[in-house]
Amino acid sequence: MKRNIVIAAVAAAVVIGGGAATALATGGEDGSAAHRAEVRAADARVSADRAPEDRGGGSARVDAAEAIAAALRHTPGTAVSAELDDADDAGGRLVWEVDVLTGGGEWRQVLVDPADGRVLGSHREHEDDTAEVRSALKGTSVDAAGAARAAAGKGTVTSVELDEDGRVPAWEVETRASGHDDDHDWRVDLRTGEVTRDHSDDDGDDD
Length: 207
Prior knowledge:
By secondary structure, the chain is α+β, with helices and mostly antiparallel strands. It has two domains: 2-52, no CATH class; 64-204, no CATH class. The chain has helices spanning 2-17, 21-25, 33-54, 64-74, 130-137, 144-151; strands at residues 78-86, 94-101, 107-112, 119-125, 156-163, 170-176, 183-189, 195-197. Strands 4-3-2-1-5-6-7-8 form an eight-stranded antiparallel beta sheet. A hairpin with a 6-residue loop joins β6 and β7 (183-189). α1 packs parallel to α3 (33-54) and α4 runs antiparallel to α6. The protein is globular, with a radius of gyration of 20 Å.
């Protein structure tokens, strides 16, 4: 019974404080491996329950630009997109998915923890637009991280992606205002960093 009370207290602490399960776990009456395992399991269940609330990016402590920087430290190259989303490769948990085109022409997706910026893993991807991406970015001065920073004043950035197929190539950035469910789309100029409203999807908002 006492062990169940400790686990419940841990879960409450995670909900209220966003973490600190380890500190409470060591305060239990027994330090057995089984006890610690149950505490970790309770912590994991609470974290899973909190994930949908984080989907808008409001609770993510690592922003898009920081996630891109972490991904590029792990896999040097050019970041072409970054999105805060559920990832199958991370057990369905919320992560930053950063697509990187390496100097050797390989596409990699790097998963970054939005809580602390740790790289959780990476895998190879198969894309066929390498030439188009390199052509669109040639001679430009605003990279993916720069686009995310430029649009940050519009709200919390939840995704940034290169639109190399448009009439005028640009970064497409999606933001969400704190406390709101509506997403807003922006275009960031590849050379100047100017942010303008993207109206291309306005007609499809109700689809």
